[in-house]
Amino acid sequence: MLLQYTPVHQPALKHFGLPRSPFVDDVQSLNDVFESVSSRYARVALMDAARNHGFMALIGESGAGKTTLLEALEQRIIDEGQDIVLIKPYTLAMEANDSKGKTLRSTHIAEAIAYQLDPQLKIKSSPQGRFDQLHKLLRDSCRAGRRHLLVIDEAHCLPIATLKHLKRFIELKDGLRRVMGVLLIAQPELRNLLHSQNREVREVMQRCELVELDPLDNDLEGYIAHKFQRFDLRPDDVFEPDAFNAIRERLIHVPRGVKAGEKGSVSTCYPLAVHNLIARAMNAAADAGYPKVDAAVVAVC
């Protein structure tokens, strides 16, 4: 279930005694990041990839919290003073082929790495010379105590050729030690590609750890409590007990003949969808003069 962005309106904020929306600019410190079982594992895996030059893909639906986890990784690096360099190649309107937008090529990645480590470097024109420069930069930086993590956002839009070439970057070493890790941030299309029988991506599929963010199905109450606790409010100040199952029912599609939680049910109970549904329900409850959001209000939102 895809829901259009909905803010909590001012009358609803006043009705429920909120100084501002709990879903806008709601993550300002590491304590604001909710930890489900899957996101907790993802946070550990992200830091391990950064420290030990791993190769992983963080997979999640739109609004699942991938960007928040990446930002939390950056904040932790800052807070702990870790000498880890995050390298982010930027390509506006990145797509898998040039007919739809701009493709991110391995040469662009090499340029991004070189610029991050030495902005004044004059990059050689030949592929061999450029790759040797890159290897030396990373090797010398590692020997100085740094760690490097190449971060590619929207990696499901990578051309297959570039995806294959990532193996070359991972194989850059100083003796037996890798000199850089690779992190792909992607929607499920990347998982589907790597799980396919496409032999072109087998070298990536066999080396890349896929870490997937699960929906909040069983963590919904805890997630909502965490959000409202940041305002010193309890969920039962805003929600009737039956509201939580109603939210789940709106965001989990269970085909006929399939029980909730079984294979075949499809959940969109991710943070962004939860935010938009709750905002709609809070607005509706305030407009109707209901003291709290209940299942009946959620059902019509």
UniProtKB/TrEMBL annotation:
<dbReference type="InterPro" id="IPR049945">
    <property type="entry name" value="AAA_22"/>
</dbReference>
<dbReference type="GO" id="GO:0016887">
    <property type="term" value="F:ATP hydrolysis activity"/>
</dbReference>
<dbReference type="Pfam" id="PF13401">
    <property type="entry name" value="AAA_22"/>
</dbReference>
<protein>
    <submittedName>
        <fullName>ExeA protein</fullName>
    </submittedName>
</protein>
<feature type="domain" description="AAA+ ATPase">
    <location>
        <begin position="52"/>
        <end position="209"/>
    </location>
</feature>
<dbReference type="InterPro" id="IPR003593">
    <property type="entry name" value="AAA+_ATPase"/>
</dbReference>
<dbReference type="InterPro" id="IPR027417">
    <property type="entry name" value="P-loop_NTPase"/>
</dbReference>
<dbReference type="InterPro" id="IPR052026">
    <property type="entry name" value="ExeA_AAA_ATPase_DNA-bind"/>
</dbReference>
